[in-house]
Amino acid sequence: MRAARLSVLTAVAAVTAVTAVTGCTSKSDAKDGDRVINVTATDSKCETSKKEISAGHVELAIENKGSKVTEVYVLFPDDRVVTERENIGPGTKQRVTAEVKAGDYQIACKPGMKGTGIRQDLKVTGGTAAKRNPKLDKAVADYREYAQEQADATIPLVKTFTEAIKAGDLEAAKKAYAPSRLGWERTEPIAESFGDIDPLTDTREDGLEDGQKWTGWHRLEKALWQDKKIGDEEKTVAGQLVTDLEDWQKRVGKAEITPTSMANGAKELLDEVATGKVTGEEDRYSHTDLSDFKANVEGAQKAYELLKPVAQTNDAALTTELDKRFAALNTLLDKYRADKTSYDFVSYDKVTEAQRKELSDAVNALAEPLSKLAAAVVK
């Protein structure tokens, strides 16, 4: 996860606006002026060119005119995430495509990537029914099944980890830590879309909001590797981690998934790698970053492969480039494990600065074309 996420917030309105949960697509071009919302972010403002738009695909054209790195979200009234774009540097521009149905939303800018953001209301009106694409319907259905499979597989691995903690077995808990995170890391954008689960389970100490109690994986990681002890508090946190992740497991099937959210989620997973894994910040005590790194890449690649049949028809050059970049990054990662079927990677504190730069360059080379996948899907 990145350094800061949305705070745990209560629902602000009982509005039933939802994005399409099937593979709907509209032939209206998001590049047309009436489908683009210009978002100008500064350190103190979040200005949007439109307050109302018709349902369908919409493109946010974001420009950061502030001095801080920012994030921009489209949010449901209860703060679930429709789509987001992270790590928008000062003086830079980003574009992100989303799919929305009629209802009330908010566009939020988060200067410094902290807090609940500066918000503007967005009203989405009826619009024309989107034309269905059976290939995208299948992609969404298959991705929903994949996300559920990952959540289901995570729970037993987490219980192995937490049971070792409850037994006071430091070495067994260390061994079980990284495997317990794989399914989560592969599908993290789904968990983030709920808003309240991720802060409980995957927040780093420097990402805590004011007044937030530190729980979850990284709280336990610090106890195991830095403090080298398991006390009553750690055992309580371990029990809470299971409860929170079982909540996630039950809610995965209700997640709002669209072809564009899949494509944007793939890009978000690469952002996770760039801002947490490559830097060594994610698993700073255990140095198991490369295991998380690989899982993020696998999740991004799964979403891409499900969308590829449509993206390839619309933009063959893009899919050729993505195939090349995914292969290159996976080949590079394989250098850091003896067995390609294992997630037992080299400890990240043994990876040199030059090697980290090589990994970063490979991630960036993939992230740039991957940011174009959503637009290719809705052409």
Layout of strands and helices, then pairs:
Blueprint: E1 24-25, E2 36-41, E3 46-48, E4 52-54, E5 56-64, E6 70-75, E7 81-88, E8 93-100, E9 103-109, E10 118-125, E11 131-132, H1 134-166, H2 170-177, H3 182-186, H4 188-194, H5 197-201, H6 217-227, H7 232-251, H8 259-277, H9 289-314, H10 316-334, H11 353-370, H12 373-377
Parallel strand pairs: 2-5, 4-10
Antiparallel strand pairs: 1-11, 2-3, 5-8, 6-7, 6-9, 9-10
Helix pairs in contact: 1-2, 1-7, 1-9, 2-6, 6-7, 8-9, 8-11, 9-10, 10-11
Largest sheet: 5 strands, mixed
**What is the tally of helical segments?**
12
Distance between the termini: 31 Å
Compute the average pLDDT.
Answer: 88
State the low-pLDDT regions, or none: 2-31
Count of DSSP strands? 11
Query: What kind of oligomer do you see?
Result: single chain
- Largest beta sheet: strand ordering: 4-10-9-6-7
Which structural class fits the helix and strand makeup? alpha+beta
Give the C-alpha Rg: 20 Å
Shape descriptor reads globular
Beta-strand content: 15-25%
Order of helices and strands: EEEEEEEEEEEHHHHHHHHHHHH
| Helicity level | 40-55%
Description:
This protein is of the alpha+beta class and 379 residues long. Helix content is 46%, strand content 16%. It has twelve helices and eleven strands. The strands form three sheets. It has a five-stranded mixed beta sheet. A hairpin with a 4-residue loop joins strand 2 and strand 3. Helix 1 (134-166) packs antiparallel against helix 2 (170-177) and helix 6 (217-227) runs antiparallel to helix 7. The model is unreliable at 2-31 (pLDDT under 50).
